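To the team - 4'-phosphopantetheine complex, inputs and output below.
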Amino acid sequence: MNKAIYPGSFDPVTLGHLDIIRRTSEMFDQVVVGVLKNKAKSPLFSVQERVNMLQEVTADLPNVEVMAFEGLLIDFVRANDAKVIVRGLRAITDFEYELQMAQTNRVIAPEVDTVFLTTNLKYSYLSSSIVKEIAEYNGQISEFLHPMVEARVREKLAVRREGEENHE
Ligand code: PNS
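Output:
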């Protein structure tokens, strides 16, 4: 079976990610979206919340599965018996980091290849961090996120704000 792994932080999933997932699902028999439980970053959403949102927004894609992972991406790829990692390339600024990751992963696991999809021009500037920053200042984010994800971001930020106010 032709299987691809699409890994990321997805904090939260944006329409740019969703575009890559959709296109990958048309190219491969099965796609596993791997959500990194990242110890270094402090995410807005828990890994389970990120997995749940991804499952909801990909519910119409029967060959897409969403799973959390910890540790090395290559171990996750091998555990899923896949040979392809898919990453989206937005702009030249992504290139150096992506090249470094792809080449390192290839040294660790020569049987695994990384395939890059250029993001839809409509989303080429988009990142989860920028969306969160705009939302924090109550800016418009509906053009970047699925409506359900937008609602969850607003809820999460409201709860966080309440917590901060109670601490003051
Ligand atoms: O959405 P992101 O944050 O750009 O995704 C980065 C991700 C999850 C693909 C990358 O951080 C990763 O693979 N982390 C797992 C740890 C690992 O394997 N590190 C070595 C990569 S060379």
